[in-house]
């Protein structure tokens, strides 16, 4: 599986590697199970275990009962009384691919002499195991797994968990039953817990400030920085729900007081439980029917008031399991808790007994693990980038690492407060998470490795803009974000605005991307850029472009890319004052096609060897075409705060010309549907700035059309509005979710608006139709829950053309083909 796996080591090398791995895995287990503070990601731990297994498979002499492959990981750690489990608690073996799963299924079928095996397929809850011992229906003990034989007595904390009944419901309970389950913190509760930690930090700070101010001898000023670090140590941000849950169940509440107790209680009360197994079971003879299947046991559990996961499925064979794996591969983040795999169990208890268990795990169950979404890597540097709006954003530069299928080397850290709250220092090993399509995020440092000898450095937010040197400051009082106030000529901001003009939501000029924007605003040569601001954009000539040489910058960060040997090398000064050799390119020129003789002649006579590239002529041609694009695109291109495509469409549609927008009062602007007072203020503020007005003037002088031909003007629009909206979708709100074949995401919205309807982003009772495409997620489910009419793409097309009347005669819910979706069992 892993590339470190090497079964052809000679005996001595195998022995050495084996000992090394055992030491690593044991240290990992202590950090994970006893301290609730892992030092490596689960993926790395799994890889180590896997390598260990491979070595032992090739060298069976190395297998001893003490090997981690033969034991249940974990131990009963300090602080709690230890208890013996009535029956041993086991771990689970893992598979990492569907092929391995099918091979496991084939072995089980062979051992049972069956053709198909009936399974119970469950979501693998990322929490920690608990064993609940009930005697005649009364909870007598709750224990952690520990090493499988001995666990920690956590009954006191368990009694505070609402999901754990003190008495089982109903009657006819066994004399003794050991019920196993998973304690976890739901994702939403986890976020609330972290909010509470932040609030407690603030309270600690306020108290410290007050104490300081009250002291008569407050000669020294209050050390804000130190106080914040201390507060963070008392109430840290939790890295993930699993560790927060493990720490929550295994805390000594009676040793806590004050704010610590408040935090501790909140943590234990946010714990939930799903039961997923049976240990010892003793009934008074004759009082009960024998249980035949695990799923039957769950039915008993549910009747006794114990929570059973709603995601379990009973399936007829391995294909049903594979379907579930595929389903949760896509919907991994659509359920209440974190999951890291699918657990498959032989459902028939007789068969479970026949298959038995190894010293570590049952043979009748297996866990399929999804690819990791959390990995660890080294934080090499924290740099600061400046964006289009001047916001200065610190971002992490990490050792490249593979996570959720892609290589990640950078992650935004948002602002200096976020850096502080995460408690990361440059040089730390950090936990990096990339879940689904969400952008990668650093969760925090690996605290267990805080003293690994690698040099550390605290991050200090720079005081000046790294691109133009202007002092950074918040734009409003109370703003956390710092901005570069030099909007007019800060290279980063001009570059960002020019790129925005070329973007899909702006003038949609294909050649005007990040490299072109940088070339036009910050060329290495000529020293004077063709554009100081975007005002001159439509005056550009091909001759101006040809001599431009530029440094290629990273699209995320705006920083120069290291020289990679493919372009021309250029020496430049970096934001921190150092120099670097980076890659540079000539984006607008190409070599003329000359014979050798012609070339020699050209060199002698000083004629140029280069001419304009297709990119250069294309840019000028496309800008020419862009001059008569829709008015809303021009509006977006002005880079006015809050004026994106939606507001720009509303403004253009109502006023019909840029001059009318400019002449409108605050009230007139705010009154337009989809505009409102915030955008109205942003517009007025924008037109108030002289260099902004100059952009409009110069664009108009260059021939940019800033009106809609044949638009009747705002007065006529107002008159018409009194008569109500028109079009087949007038007065109707439509939500489009998932992907459609014939419409892009924006295209579908535009089509709804074009037909006189409203396009909404979220489903509510006010929604009239929900259009559901491929891979639709929670919105589709919500629509079903609210009983809203659901349309497929074909019905949507009919609706756009003919309004609701066009849908009559067809079934509003489409077909019933996919009735066995996620919630159908
Ligand atoms: N990062 C680290 O340093 C580190 C160290 C040790 C363990 N780990 C993590 O723990 C894993 C190994 O731990 P493990 O031995 O506890 O095994 P495991 O977590 O892979 O599987 C066994 C456990 O799964 C749990 N589980 C969740 N849902 C279940 C369900 N529906 N049915 C049955 N059991 C369910 C049970 O608590 C059971 O004990 C590793 O693969 C890794 O993910 C990480
Ligand atoms: Zn600047």
From TrEMBL:
<feature type="binding site">
    <location>
        <position position="122"/>
    </location>
    <ligand>
        <name>NAD(+)</name>
    </ligand>
</feature>
<feature type="binding site">
    <location>
        <position position="465"/>
    </location>
    <ligand>
        <name>Zn(2+)</name>
    </ligand>
</feature>
<feature type="binding site">
    <location>
        <begin position="42"/>
        <end position="46"/>
    </location>
    <ligand>
        <name>NAD(+)</name>
    </ligand>
</feature>
<dbReference type="InterPro" id="IPR010994">
    <property type="entry name" value="RuvA_2-like"/>
</dbReference>
<keyword id="KW-0479">Metal-binding</keyword>
<dbReference type="GO" id="GO:0005829">
    <property type="term" value="C:cytosol"/>
</dbReference>
<feature type="binding site">
    <location>
        <begin position="91"/>
        <end position="92"/>
    </location>
    <ligand>
        <name>NAD(+)</name>
    </ligand>
</feature>
<dbReference type="InterPro" id="IPR012340">
    <property type="entry name" value="NA-bd_OB-fold"/>
</dbReference>
<feature type="binding site">
    <location>
        <position position="468"/>
    </location>
    <ligand>
        <name>Zn(2+)</name>
    </ligand>
</feature>
<dbReference type="InterPro" id="IPR018239">
    <property type="entry name" value="DNA_ligase_AS"/>
</dbReference>
<dbReference type="GO" id="GO:0046872">
    <property type="term" value="F:metal ion binding"/>
</dbReference>
<dbReference type="Pfam" id="PF01653">
    <property type="entry name" value="DNA_ligase_aden"/>
</dbReference>
<dbReference type="Pfam" id="PF03119">
    <property type="entry name" value="DNA_ligase_ZBD"/>
</dbReference>
<feature type="binding site">
    <location>
        <position position="484"/>
    </location>
    <ligand>
        <name>Zn(2+)</name>
    </ligand>
</feature>
<keyword id="KW-0436">Ligase</keyword>
<protein>
    <recommendedName>
        <fullName>DNA ligase</fullName>
        <ecNumber>6.5.1.2</ecNumber>
    </recommendedName>
</protein>
<dbReference type="InterPro" id="IPR041663">
    <property type="entry name" value="DisA/LigA_HHH"/>
</dbReference>
<feature type="binding site">
    <location>
        <position position="145"/>
    </location>
    <ligand>
        <name>NAD(+)</name>
    </ligand>
</feature>
<dbReference type="InterPro" id="IPR001357">
    <property type="entry name" value="BRCT_dom"/>
</dbReference>
<keyword id="KW-0235">DNA replication</keyword>
<feature type="binding site">
    <location>
        <position position="369"/>
    </location>
    <ligand>
        <name>NAD(+)</name>
    </ligand>
</feature>
<dbReference type="Pfam" id="PF03120">
    <property type="entry name" value="OB_DNA_ligase"/>
</dbReference>
<dbReference type="InterPro" id="IPR004150">
    <property type="entry name" value="NAD_DNA_ligase_OB"/>
</dbReference>
<dbReference type="Pfam" id="PF00533">
    <property type="entry name" value="BRCT"/>
</dbReference>
<dbReference type="InterPro" id="IPR013840">
    <property type="entry name" value="DNAligase_N"/>
</dbReference>
<dbReference type="InterPro" id="IPR004149">
    <property type="entry name" value="Znf_DNAligase_C4"/>
</dbReference>
<keyword id="KW-0862">Zinc</keyword>
<dbReference type="InterPro" id="IPR013839">
    <property type="entry name" value="DNAligase_adenylation"/>
</dbReference>
<dbReference type="InterPro" id="IPR036420">
    <property type="entry name" value="BRCT_dom_sf"/>
</dbReference>
<comment type="function">
    <text>DNA ligase that catalyzes the formation of phosphodiester linkages between 5'-phosphoryl and 3'-hydroxyl groups in double-stranded DNA using NAD as a coenzyme and as the energy source for the reaction. It is essential for DNA replication and repair of damaged DNA.</text>
</comment>
<dbReference type="GO" id="GO:0006281">
    <property type="term" value="P:DNA repair"/>
</dbReference>
<keyword id="KW-0520">NAD</keyword>
<keyword id="KW-0227">DNA damage</keyword>
<keyword id="KW-0460">Magnesium</keyword>
<comment type="similarity">
    <text>Belongs to the NAD-dependent DNA ligase family. LigA subfamily.</text>
</comment>
<dbReference type="GO" id="GO:0003911">
    <property type="term" value="F:DNA ligase (NAD+) activity"/>
</dbReference>
<feature type="region of interest" description="Disordered">
    <location>
        <begin position="803"/>
        <end position="825"/>
    </location>
</feature>
<dbReference type="InterPro" id="IPR001679">
    <property type="entry name" value="DNA_ligase"/>
</dbReference>
<feature type="compositionally biased region" description="Acidic residues">
    <location>
        <begin position="814"/>
        <end position="825"/>
    </location>
</feature>
<feature type="active site" description="N6-AMP-lysine intermediate">
    <location>
        <position position="124"/>
    </location>
</feature>
<keyword id="KW-0234">DNA repair</keyword>
<feature type="binding site">
    <location>
        <position position="490"/>
    </location>
    <ligand>
        <name>Zn(2+)</name>
    </ligand>
</feature>
């Amino acid at each position: 599986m892993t590339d470190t796996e090497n079964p052809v080591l000679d005996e001595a090398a195998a022995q050495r590697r084996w000992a090394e791995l055992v030491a690593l895995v044991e240290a990992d287990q202590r950090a994970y199970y006893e301290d609730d503070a892992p030092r490596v990601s689960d993926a790395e731990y799994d890889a180590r275990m896997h390598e260990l297994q491979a070595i032992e498979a090739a060298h069976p002499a190395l297998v001893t009962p003490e090997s981690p492959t033969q034991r249940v990981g974990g131990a009963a750690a300090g602080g709690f009384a230890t208890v013996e489990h009535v029956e041993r608690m086991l771990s689970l073996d893992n598979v990492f691919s569907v092929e391995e799963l099918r091979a496991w299924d084939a072995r089980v079928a062979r051992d049972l002499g069956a053709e198909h095996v009936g399974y119970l397929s469950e979501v693998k809850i990322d929490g920690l195991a608990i064993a609940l011992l009930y005697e005649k229906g009364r909870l007598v003990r709750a224990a952690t797994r520990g090493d499988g034989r001995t666990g920690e007595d956590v009954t006191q904390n368990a009694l505070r968990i609402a999901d754990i009944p003190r008495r089982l419901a109903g009657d006819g309970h066994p004399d003794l039953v050991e019920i196993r389950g998973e304690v976890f913190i739901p994702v939403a509760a986890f976020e609330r817990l972290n909010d509470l930690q932040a609030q407690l930090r603030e309270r600690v700070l306020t108290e410290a400030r007050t104490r300081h101010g009250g002291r008569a001898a407050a000669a020294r000023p209050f050390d804000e920085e130190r106080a914040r670090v201390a507060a963070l140590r008392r109430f840290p941000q939790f890295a993930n729900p699993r560790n927060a849950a493990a720490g929550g169940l295994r805390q000594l509440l009676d040793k806590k007081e004050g704010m610590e107790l408040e935090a501790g209680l909140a943590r234990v009360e946010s714990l939930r439980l799903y039961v997923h197994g049976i240990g010892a079971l003793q009934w008074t003879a004759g009082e009960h029917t024998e249980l035949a299947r695990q799923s039957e046991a769950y039915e008993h559990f549910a009747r006794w008031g114990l929570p059973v996961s709603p995601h379990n499925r009973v399936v007829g064979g391995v294909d049903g399991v594979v379907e579930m794996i595929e389903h949760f591969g896509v919907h991994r983040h659509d359920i209440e808790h974190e999951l890291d795999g699918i657990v498959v169990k032989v459902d028939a208890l007789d068969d479970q007994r026949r298959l038995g268990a190894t010293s570590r795990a049952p043979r009748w169950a297996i866990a399929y693990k999804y690819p990791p979404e959390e990995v660890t890597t080294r934080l090499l540097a924290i740099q600061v980038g400046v964006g289009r709006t001047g916001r200065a954003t610190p971002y992490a530069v990490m050792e490249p690492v593979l996570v959720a299928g892609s290589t990640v080397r950078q992650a935004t850290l948002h602002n200096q407060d976020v850096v502080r709250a995460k408690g990361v220092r440059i040089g730390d090993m950090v936990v990096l998470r990339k879940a689904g399509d969400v952008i990668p995020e650093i969760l925090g440092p690996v605290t267990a490795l805080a003293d690994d000898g690698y040099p550390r450095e605290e991050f200090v937010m720079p005081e000046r803009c790294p691109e133009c040197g202007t002092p950074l400051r918040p734009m409003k009082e109370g703003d956390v974000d710092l901005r570069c106030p030099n909007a007019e000529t800060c290279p980063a901001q001009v570059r960002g605005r020019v790129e925005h003009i070329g973007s899909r939501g702006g003038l949609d000029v294909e050649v005007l991307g990040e490299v072109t924007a940088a070339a036009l605003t910050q060329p290495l040569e000529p020293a004077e850029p063709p554009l100081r601001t975007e005002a001159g954009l439509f005056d550009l000539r091909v001759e101006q472009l040809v001599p431009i040489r530029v440094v290629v910058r990273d699209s995320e960060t705006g920083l120069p890319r290291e020289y990679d040997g493919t372009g021309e090398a250029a020496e430049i000064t970096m934001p921190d004052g150092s120099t670097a050799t980076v890659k540079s390119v000539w984006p607008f020129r190409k070599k003329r096609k000359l014979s050798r003789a012609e070339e020699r002649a050209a060199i002698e006579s000083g004629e140029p060897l280069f001419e304009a590239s297709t990119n250069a002529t294309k840019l000028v041609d496309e800008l020419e075409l862009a001059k008569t694009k829709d008015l809303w695109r021009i509006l977006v291109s002005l880079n006015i705060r809050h004026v994106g495509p939606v507001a720009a469409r509303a403004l253009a549609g109502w006023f019909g010309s840029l001059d009318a927008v400019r002449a409108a009062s605050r009230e007139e602007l705010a009154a337009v549907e989809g505009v409102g007072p915030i955008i109205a203020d942003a517009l007025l503020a924008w037109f108030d700035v002289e260099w902004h007005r100059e952009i409009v003037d110069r664009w108009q002088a260059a021939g940019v059309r800033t009106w809609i031909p044949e638009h009747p003007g705002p007065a006529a629009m107002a008159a018409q509005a009194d008569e109500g909206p028109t079009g087949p979708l007038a007065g109707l709100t439509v939500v489009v979710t998932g992907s459609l074949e014939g419409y892009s995401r924006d295209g579908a919205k535009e089509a709804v608006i074009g037909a006189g309807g409203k396009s909404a982003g979220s489903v509510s009772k006010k929604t009239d139709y929900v259009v559901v495409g491929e891979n639709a997620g929670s919105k589709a489910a919500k629509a079903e829950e609210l009983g809203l009419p659901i349309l497929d793409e074909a019905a949507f097309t009919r609706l756009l053309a003919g309004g609701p009347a066009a849908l009559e005669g067809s079934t509003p819910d489409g077909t019933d083909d996919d009735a066995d979706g996620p919630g159908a069992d």
